[in-house]
Amino acid sequence: MNAAVVTVGDELLVGDTENTNATWLCDRLDARGVAVRRVTVVPDEVAEIARVVNEYHAEYDAVIVTGGLGPTHDDVTMEAVAAAFGRGLEANAEATAWLADRGYSGDDLAAETTHLPADCRPLPNEAGVAPGAVVESVYVLPGVPDEMKAMFDLVEDEFAGTPTHVLTVDVDEPESELLDRFASLRERFDVRVGSYPGEVVTVKITAESEAEAERAAAWIRERTDAVEERSA
């Protein structure tokens, strides 16, 4: 399963807010074997959000959009997602009933709070007020981290892929001197290889087979000045 993550908010683009939602979602999706192919930040603009959602919906199995939910002037994500599918926004009876069960009446909330894309599946907000929605394979979640996490928990089982196994080997050699051995590693084993220089070079080996990851790690460890191996 391939997925894309789209985070919405001018505050992310100017650096006022750290994009912890994207990091958290990528970690959870990776743990389920889902390959995240894109992480994109877009401004609070209907046309820009709709364009990206439309493109990613056509290209990937699932798209997760976070941020921009609610009744204020810059909360335009639902309108944008609806536009991406050529739909309008309409009052959602299920979302209205769910909020009523929590003690909110129409007088308590702006009308736009329960306006969702037509024919969507509403998602209750267990940690807040503004509901989310699923439109085909696009999941629209709040931007407030606690609300986003609680809502993702409701749909997490809908994301599944091939779990991978990761091993790391720390090597006390310059990265530039390891390139030929990295090439040989990829040729010999069915693995992905990443290298991250610091005080030592951390070689990250990812494979669908645990045994393959172990063999590849042993191979690189035997042919380098390896410091230590860690499970990741």
Q: Can you summarize this structure?
A:
With 232 residues, this protein is an alpha/beta fold.
Description:
InterPro entries: CinA (IPR050101), MoaB/Mog-like_dom_sf (IPR036425), MoaB/Mog_dom (IPR001453). Residues 4-162 form the MoaB/Mog domain. This is Competence/damage-inducible protein A. Helix 3 packs across helix 4. The protein has eight helices and twelve strands. The chain is elongated and about 70 Å long. With 232 residues, the chain is an alpha/beta fold. A hairpin with a 2-residue loop joins strand 7 and strand 8 (138-141). It has helices at 10-13, 20-31, 46-59, 77-84, 93-101, 145-155, 179-188, 210-222; strands at 2-8, 35-42, 62-66, 89-91, 115-117, 121-123, 132-135, 138-141, 165-171, 192-197, 201-207, 226-231. The strands form three sheets. It has a six-stranded mixed sheet, sandwiched between helices. The mean pLDDT is 93. The protein has two domains: 1-156, MoaB/Mog-like domain (Molybdenum Cofactor Biosythetic Enzyme, Chain A), CATH 3.40.980.10; 163-220, 2-Layer Sandwich (TATA-Binding Protein), CATH 3.30.310.
